[in-house]
Amino acid sequence: MRQWLYIVVAVALIASASLLIPGVNEMRAEHGLTSNPVLENVPPELALATTALGGFRGIIVDMLWLRAMKLQQQEKFFELVQLFDWIGKLEPRSAPVWVFSAWNMAYNISVEMPTASERWRWIRLGMDQLRNHGLRYNKRSSDLYREMAWIYQNKIGNTVDDFHWYYKTQLAKEMEDVFGRGPITDLKPFLKAPRTLEELRARLDPKPILAALGAVGYKPLKDPLSVLTALDDEKSDAREVLDRPEFAEDRETFIMFLRNWAIKNVLRMDLDYMVQLQNEIGPMDWRLPEPYTLYYSGLALKYAGKKDFTPNYYRLRYEAVRRLYKGGSLFFDRGKGGEKAVYLTSSNWRFFDAADAVYRNAIAAEADRPNVQRSFKNAHATFMEEGVVLFYACSQVKRARELYRKLQKEYPNERHSVSFDRFVINKLIPDPAATTAAEATVLINGVLMEAYRWLAAGNDERAKGLFNLAAKMRRYYMFDKENQGTYTRRVQIPEFATLNAQARKKALGKGALPEVLRRRLMERLGVKEKPEEKPKKAKTPEKPQKPKK
Amino acid sequence: MSKIWAIARHMIAQGIRMRVAVVVMVLFVLLMPTLPFVLKGDGTLHGFVQVIITYSLTLATVLLSVLTLALSTGSLCTEIRDKQAFILDSKPIQRWQVLAGKWLGIMMIDASLLAFMGLSSYGFIRFFASRQGDLSDKKFKEEQDTLHNKVLCARRSCKLPVPDVDGMVRKRFKELKEKGKIPEGLSNEDALRQIRGAVLRQLKSVPFSGAKRWHFRDLPAKQTEWDRFTLRFKHYLGSEWAQGQVDGLWRFRAPGGARPVDVATRFSAGNFHEFDVPLSVVSPDGELTIEFRNLERRHQTVSFPLEDGLELLFHAGSFEVNFAQGLMVMLCKLGFLAAVGILCSTFLTLPVAVTLALCIYLLSGMSGFIADMVNSPGLFDSIMRSPQGEGGYVREIVRHVVRWYLYAVTVVLPPFEQFQVVGKLNAGREIGWKTLANGLFVLVLVRSGIIAALACFLYSRRELAGVKS
């Protein structure tokens, strides 16, 4: 009898609890706790983790977090990739989990590494975490795209890390491995090439090439980069296979297919969107970090919901295009046989209009948030000011004048009320009265060295602009000093010709420029290397004779 | 002894009959080969080997713990439940001998399975470590060097004791106060804070072009066959968060010994760095003076943290011996678990005994965390603080009671943190005979002994054939 009573009570309790379910479900939906749509094509371990573990999933995740944090505090990093992988797979639809683990690897752990290569490995692990897993299960998460954009812009593109040059160089090398050597500014050939196996089969029979590569240990479809990186090595088996006469006709098509395959399956990027971005912004060089910032921030904006704080996405975008026009031309030499790679960026004013459009779009998009819009406008004014100086330095004086007039009209203030030449000089020597002759000489010398650097890199236009700018800086500085009545022999700086000769001598000397550029500069200026003088043999002093007793 | 041995043999037979041992072995054989395919390292060979060491030994520990728990609680409980214990009780054998025999039998099963799992794990580790490659390839050679010098080895750590900062501060404060040099109006608290800052600066900082010396004694220089040792250090530039490269000149010299060895370094601030030094710089009686001269290019002060600032690592034996020592320490922990399980089974039914034994074992694993919590008042108070802010005296009483309770827990439970062998094995750190002897004494003789005595007391007083309602 008592058992029956228990059963009745249990049924009554369950029934009354079930009445609460609709309310609970509403609250779950309200607080964003509802489960996401069913994941498609998930690996078995993920399916098991998300369904079979049930309520224990949370406990296991907590334990893994505790272990990961403890190991990180103890600076034992080797296991963290595994732990974060498990944490992510136990909560695959939680974007903050992927964002945190990627950020943790790319920032916190990487800076604990003593060498550049080790740091780069952790940055890559962080990006792979987002690219290969996070974005796979959260294709529409703006947070994840924003985090990718941020890593490209801040960690690689910015100068916040001591080893940022190494990261930039590695990115350029890796992208050359995927896209091919040299500037990656034209993506049309990739669009024409086959992108899927079906498209490849329509052009050629891939079986013989795949079999031949497989016979020498390559798995092109699983690891296309191993084949693409081996192409440069004449002794590599992959190169030997692809150079065989029977594959001569299909070689290029197959290599282009492999590149497309790597873009899709290794970089996990959408070629069509890359081309769309290229058409929108201009011929970006995909060896630089900025195109990737634009790519991912563009997708972040596309998938951003009402709750997302989009101004940060716009900031990422206009900062990326600003950097593109300031340093969008890349001179890159990978460095052979242990030589150091040379990575040199120069301004590319061709991106100016695109950058300007991005700023204006951002300002228009945030019209309903006056504070945000004001900060965007300030950034736009600074951008235009930099543009004036840059056009001037690039011998685009007419364009610089037009831009300055526009700046005066759109952002009138005291700074913009002076004459055009004075504005340019003010940007470079903001306070002539407080600048000593020695400091001014250093500034002018710096501009001249830049001019020789770009002359060496083949950018005559930029070099010419910089020479003119250096001359003008000197003239204005002396003029200011005379007008202030402080002109004496004490503040006299050398004539421009003397300054130029000094800078030329320094640029041609060893150590001022990378060796590759120094040799190029010598070629361009028609200067021959002086043979190094052999050190004369020092005469051995005669042994002093012992004084005779 | 023969009676205990007879019970032990019976326990082994029972273990095989229960099939738990077989299931554990089959699970290990099935899971172990999958580890390399499901685990991810940090992208380096040594990182991957470290992960394999960690997870293969963790797998062995988990499976053997389950087995030990099942055998230790299951055996006696089922014998009492099925009334087999009545027959045994009527034989000329003491009850304590029954318990001792059971413990011995469980340990023999554990030892043989642990040996099998250890050998399998070792085979896997060696297999993945022996990746073939071109030794003329610089990267491959570096990887192999790192693997054999940092992971597959047994390095003994030599650190200087952390100075007693509080004592130094108090002494300095007393001196200044006696001399009347503490300014009027400066509170004792502020004076102590300022003195503490000055003492820490003196102990940690190296000003530009200045030098800091460390003097080591009793280094194990003679005990190693290697011709070098490793200096591991960490230094900061200005604040702990400042980045940058630090230039320095290290000088290693045996007091009154041969020529010193100088090493110029340029390492990033805020990270651990290691470099090798010839062993010849250590004097025959194990003395060494290390000097660091700060040559930082921007003339900034460099500081070394007191605890992790400097450490010397000497190769003190082979990985194989270290690995075997690690397995034996693991066996000591299983011995403790077996004793706990048997204790619980003497007075509880099977489900309750399993739960209690498991809780005690898990709490023992967390003893380090609990001890940290109790010993750091800030952490404890932040955990115990109510969201509404400070409570009244009732809350204070509760706080004290909980603290003393946790303190008692840390005293009663064995300090498993001291016997974490997996972390040492994957970092190539020496476990040593001392740790093993300590494990045998603390875990087996003392803790398990006390538990065994308690179990014998309870079991000898238990009425097996008592009438139950």
For this entry, give a set of tags.
heterodimer, A: 549 residues, mainly alpha, two-stranded antiparallel sheet, disordered C terminus, B: 469 residues, alpha+beta, four-stranded antiparallel beta sheet, 11 strands, 13% strand
Structure characterization notes:
The complex is a heterodimer of chains A (about 550) and B (about 475). A two-stranded antiparallel ribbon of chain A has the order 1-2. With about 550 residues, chain A is mostly helical. In chain A, helix 8 packs parallel to helix 18. Chain A is globular. Chain A is built from 26 helices and two strands. Chain A starts with a helix and ends in a 24-residue tail after the last helix. In chain B, a hairpin with a 7-residue loop joins strand 6 and strand 7. Chain B is globular and about 85 Å long. The mean pLDDT of chain B is about 85. The interface between A and B is medium-sized, with 20 and 24 residues.
Radius of gyration of chain B: 28 Å
Strand order of the largest sheet of chain B: 1-11-4-8
Which bin fits the share of residues in helices of chain B? 55-70%
Estimate what percentage of residues of chain B fall within beta strands: 5-15%
Biggest sheet of chain A: strands, sense, closure?
A: 2 strands, antiparallel
Low-confidence stretches of chain A: 538-549
Strand fraction of chain A equals under 5%
Largest interface: A-B, 20 and 24 residues
Please state the oligomeric state of the protein chains shown. Answer: heterodimer
Compute the number of strand runs of chain B.
Answer: 11
Total helices of chain A: the number is 26
Report the structural category of chain A. mainly alpha
Mean pLDDT of chain A: 84
Shape of chain B: globular
The end-to-end span of chain B amounts to 38 Å
SSE sequence of chain A, one letter per element: HHHHHHHHHHHHHHHHHHEEHHHHHHHH
Q: Given the C-alpha coordinates, what overall shape of chain A results?
A: globular
Helices and strands of chain B, in order, run as: HHHHHHHEHHEEEEEEEEEEHHHHHHH
Order of strands across the biggest sheet of chain A? 1-2
Largest sheet of chain B: 4 strands, antiparallel
